[in-house]
From TrEMBL:
InterPro entries for this protein: DapB_C, DapB_N, DapB_N_CS, DHDPR_bac, NAD(P)-bd_dom_sf
NCBIfam families the record matches: dapB
Domain of life: Bacteria
Gene Ontology CC entries for this record: cytosol
HAMAP family per UniProt: DapB
Pathway as given in its UniProt record: Amino-acid biosynthesis; L-lysine biosynthesis via DAP pathway; (S)-tetrahydrodipicolinate from L-aspartate: step 4/4
Catalytic activity: (S)-2,3,4,5-tetrahydrodipicolinate + NADP(+) + H2O = (2S,4S)-4-hydroxy-2,3,4,5-tetrahydrodipicolinate + NADPH + H(+); (S)-2,3,4,5-tetrahydrodipicolinate + NAD(+) + H2O = (2S,4S)-4-hydroxy-2,3,4,5-tetrahydrodipicolinate + NADH + H(+)
Keywords, alphabetical: Amino-acid biosynthesis, Cytoplasm, Diaminopimelate biosynthesis, Lysine biosynthesis, NAD, NADP, Oxidoreductase
Binding-site list for NAD(+): G8, C9, N10, G11, N12, M13, D34, A86, T87, T88, S110, S111, N112, M113
Protein name, as recorded: 4-hydroxy-tetrahydrodipicolinate reductase
Gene Ontology molecular function terms on file: 4-hydroxy-tetrahydrodipicolinate reductase; NAD binding; NADP binding; oxidoreductase activity, acting on CH or CH2 groups, NAD or NADP as acceptor
Function description: Catalyzes the conversion of 4-hydroxy-tetrahydrodipicolinate (HTPA) to tetrahydrodipicolinate.
Organism name: Caldisalinibacter kiritimatiensis
Length: 257
């Protein structure tokens, strides 16, 4: 039985994750953490601060807010507890802190827990050697009107993978509102749309002379992220200290086939 702490249990993702964990006979929720602990009637104890929890757990799954990162990393290191980080909106310093913490505990960190986005990234990076000379690359992401960060963590993740393929020579341009000059070759345009209940859409557009290619992923429910996070939690409890992502999980599933 994998004993799980849900960090951000009363957020939208925290509630979807609770439902999926409760249906999983290999997992048990031992506690939730949230700044509004009494917002819902949960079947598990909810604490305002992770340091208030005094029981045993095997892993923490975090869908919360970057505000909590320092406490979350301190607690996980102090208690030698594997961590799944799904929260987005981190600063470059936050990301360095996650990388440093992963020297002391196993951390699974991904801005998108769906399998589909991982495949989108694979397809996009495969297309780059053929298209890079003559096509411009733009990323468009669309999300619900309750999302706190923009652009999405996934848009950054996709842009970073594209940039790696260009040996980190690309410049990110967020929207074009204040731009008074033509597009340059070494740009990746990143654009955010917010509205209604859109769960999450990411498109990568390769725009060339008289033709475009668009590779798109659409999420139709938050469940895909919760299911991915649970798989990540079951994976990370058996790993050595270090930083892991969806590629590691997919590779381990393929090896077990
Ligand atoms: N990696 C992935 O696959 C996915 C990642 N996410 C990410 O997970 C995170 C949570 O998403 P979601 O559940 O939709 O968000 P919610 O806003 O619904 O929940 C976030 C939780 O954090 C709390 N919170 C929000 N803002 C603050 C703040 N400024 N200071 C302290 N606490 C705060 C909320 O409390 P309160 O309700 O009181 O505001 C709530 O408990 C986001 O970063 C999102 O981008 C989401 C889906 C998939
Ligand atoms: O806030 C969300 O909802 C989502 N956030 C993630 C992100 O910022 O990339 C992943 C997913 O698209 C949903």
């Amino acid at each position: 039985m994998v004993k799980v702490i849900i960090h951000g249990c009363n957020g939208n993702m925290g509630q979807v994750l609770s439902k999926h964990l409760q249906q999983d006979n290999q997992c048990q929720i031992v506690a939730g953490i949230d700044r509004s602990p009494n917002k819902y009637k949960n079947d598990y104890p909810v604490y305002k601060d992770i340091f208030d929890f005094e029981g045993n757990a095997d892993v923490i799954i975090d869908f919360s807010n970057p505000y909590y990162l320092p406490g979350l990393l301190d607690y996980s290191i102090e208690n030698n507890m594997p961590l799944v980080i799904a929260t987005t909106g981190f600063s470059p310093k936050d990301i360095k802190d996650i990388e440093n913490a992963a020297k002391n505990i196993p951390i699974f960190y991904s801005s998108n827990m769906s399998l589909g986005i991982n495949v989108l990234i694979e397809l996009v990076t495969k297309a780059i050697p053929t298209l890079s000379d003559s096509f411009d690359i733009e990323i468009i992401e669309k999300h619900h009107n309750q999302k706190a960060d923009a652009p999405s963590g996934t848009a950054y993740m996709i842009a970073n993978k594209i940039n790696e393929a260009f040996k980190n020579t690309m410049e990110y341009v967020f929207g074009r509102y204040s731009k008074k000059e033509k597009r340059r070759k070494n740009e990746i345009g990143i654009h955010a749309v917010r509205g209604g209940t859109i769960v999450g859409e990411h498109s990568v557009i390769f725009a060339g002379q008289d033709e475009t290619i668009e590779i798109k992923h659409s999420a139709f429910s938050k469940s895909i992220f919760a299911i991915g996070a649970i798989k990540a939690a079951k994976y990370i409890v058996n790993q050595e200290n270090g930083l892991y992502d969806m590629n590691n999980l997919v590779a381990s599933n393929n090896n077990n086939k």
